[in-house]
Structures
1.
Amino acid sequence: MRRSSFRIVAAVAAIALAVTGCSSSSDEAANEDTEFEIFTWWAFGGEAAGLQGMIDVYTAQNPNIEFINAAGAGAGVNAKAVLKSRLDANEPPDSFQAHVGMELDDYVRGGQLEDLTSLYVSEGWDKVFQADLIKTLTVDGKIYSVPVNIHRANVLWWNPATATKAGVTKAPETLDEFFADLEKFKKAGVTGLALAGKGDWAIAHLLDWMLLASMGADKFEGLYKGSTSWTGPEVATALKNFQKALAYGNKGAGNLDWPDAGKLVTSGKAGFFIMGDWASAQWQSDGLALGTDYTFAAAPGTVGVYQWLSDSFTLPVSAPHRNAAIAWLKVCGSQAGQDAFNPKKGSISARTDADLSKYDDYLKSASADWSKDRLVGSTVHGVNGNNAHMAAYSAAVGKYFSGGFKDNAGFAKDLAAAYEAGKA
Ligand code: GAL
């Protein structure tokens, strides 16, 4: 089962070594292990390309280790279920992907991860990682994973040619402007909003933005602190806006995953797409050009707010190839590893010393926004809620969406119950 996933054999190590110029004996202990398995949901396109960038650095440094990449697509929805069954059966991979925040907290509280604090000290990461990340990562004074990036969830993407055709001349900054532009697309015979309903999470991602855009950062954070009610007036307004936006979506969205929905925008069939910045990496891996084929802005109603998430790698308790895993984590935390990964993954580095000359104009602007914007966590990508909350939240959104987005009061109750499920 574990071996059915595709493998990257270290035979490419010599080439990668020449590319990176790294020494082949960076971690002597790792040489005792002959294989290493990671678990991610980066199986295709820009996501796979980003991961491969980091794998190349690893195989150059650890040429005798066979790299096994157990990847399953879909923003973690399926991957996390498979991971859970492996962890429950005490058959962990050597390292797995987990979002910084409450998602990671789940594994920490479950006693499933090793404490990596000493690695932070020996590698000097306590000084070079973004301070806000270190703060979120620290659980009772200890750190249990290595963040490889920071993604932005609240990004609006569109195709300049389609916008011009519809008379949309600038990025909508407010929800009112957004709805006015959706009308313009409609009049021009273009679907206003590209939706991906397969697996529920991308519609839940849209809701996460709409809640933030409709009620502002303080009230939004209150949803996860218990000070904003899920059945109160702020959520009711947000759900009305959500309902209104969904009505501008494409038909048949239930069959589309996010890369397919994104293609509606780049091919001129849809106006706007609200998606995390991995979309840009995906399009570039398809050969499209930023600025010409697609462009971006902060999602309407959230200008000046950075809704963030961060992917990190862990060391599970009982990892069969622990030394190989530690060598991997060292690559994950290194400047070389992060600068090989992030420009292709469409994210900014989790370190403060990234070589920005390797990053495109979108990522340079994201990097500037990260240091000046108000930071707010993503719900769908693990910051605000644990796995139980996220699963129930996405299921509630799926039910509402597949039911034709009609029953807002019932939806609010389901979202309130999802929040409670996270506390149970
Ligand atoms: C997120 C993940 C991103 C990207 C996205 C879409 O959960 O953090 O790195 O993979 O899913 O697949």
2.
Amino acid sequence: MRIVRAKDYQDMSEKAAHMIAEQIRRKPDCVLGLATGSTPQGIYEKLAEWYCAGELDFARVTTVNLDEYRGLDRGNVHSYYHYMKEKLFSRVNIRQDRTFVPDGMEQDSGRACREYDGIIAAVGGVDLQLLGLGHNGHIGFNEPGTDFETQTHCVELTESTVKANRRFFSSIEEVPGQAYTMGIGTIMQAAGIVMAVSGEDKAEILKTAVCGPVTTMVPASVLQLHRNVTVIADEAALSLVGNAGQAL
Ligand code: GLP
């Protein structure tokens, strides 16, 4: 696991965006695994900026997102599909039919998950997967206790995740209690992984995930077992990790 120390959120965003841009330049028809939440917003901002400046071309890129709330349709402003459209897809020249997000409106969860795994297989797997880190160590929506082998599945969100995501909704009742997410097994199949982490509130869990034992109780700790993982985190998030890491 490579740890890249960034100065602050801005610097973290730029460094992570550079890795994604490099992936696209190296393999223009690559498959990117994408994440939502607050953390990647600055990364998408940078990528859109570089596209506008003519420095990046998404014409042949395919994307598969980590997760989606169950019960929200694509037009819902709280859906992750809407988030992706607003933050990235509508701002770059990616083909809409090459952007995949689990279908939150598929009521049959078995079918929704099977179909999503089918899509990931059909596009040839993920070249570079972007991840954020939940306060309880979750990646995607894989909550503590999730088996490391899981593929895409339907999850009951924990109270802490519902509370953490409440800030995007007008009331806690509106936060869906379930989601479809790539499993830990799905995430681990990516050829490369970059996890972006920012802020003092993530310091404790980041230390546990990268320095602690590998355990299903801390889903992100599984990344210690992957052979191509880069953690890009700012000073605040790395404050408990000591001096590990190098400048990019
Ligand atoms: C959410 C998402 C994750 C995300 C995480 C952290 O629940 N499902 O994919 O990485 O929580 O979010 P944030 O970056 O807003 O802290």
3.
Amino acid sequence: MARVALVTGGSRGIGAAISLALKNAGCAVAATYAGNDEAAAAFTKETGIKTYKWNVANYDDSKAGLAQVEADLGPIDIVVANAGITRDAPFHKMTPGQWQEVIDTNLTGVFNTVHPVWTGMRERKFGRIVVISSINGQKGQFGQVNYAATKAGDLGIVKSLAQEGARFGITANAICPGYIATDMVMAVPEKVRESIIAQIPAGRLGEPEEIARCVAFLASDDAGFINGSTISANGAQFFV
Ligand code: CAA
């Protein structure tokens, strides 16, 4: 039986590459998205991967959406918590709204996505949780107090889930991508982006597929003893 995989924010950017990599690895994949109907429809048309619309920041919506995916595809074996947003601003200009929106989506969104499927994974004695964190959760980033807090929080989540899930065959790991060529990075002002690329020893942005291949490995049956880990994929920009 094919493993069933759920990828939040799975129709665009890094998430789209992850959805596709898991499909190519033989999984039945469901990809969620929050708002961009057009991109989701195009993604489904191109890949055959079904998309589901809900807001990961809302627990009840997430629970209902996950139940629908399980009704359509079967019990979820693999969760890739990838959905994330930025609301960058220097701290003195950051509003409580910018703080809360990022916390709700990037951090509470991980809880909302994993919690409803956790009991089923424990019962079935198998699960793979992969959380997409960030280099900026490891090193911090000027203008990203909110985002860096959530991405550092992801590392605490997987290290704790790993300890709770290990004896039930569940692994939880994080990937910290560096700067990847996606809309999110392209939204950074060009001058700032150029200065960031200058700090990457690889001399280039990463490709979404370079993150997706890490996810496919961590989600595979072969990766059962890798648990609570953080994999950095950042072109040598930062070492922990
Ligand atoms: N370090 C030190 N000082 C900095 C700085 C930095 N990295 N960036 C800006 N500054 C300084 C500016 O030079 C300026 O100084 P002066 O007032 O003396 O001229 C001061 O900070 C204020 O800068 P701005 O007026 O430009 O502030 P702003 O309100 O326009 O906002 C910003 C700036 C939104 C933070 C902008 O610099 C920015 O977008 N930075 C990029 C943040 C970033 O890396 N985001 C990552 C997005 S991609 C992502 O998140 C994916 C992932 O996981 C990697």
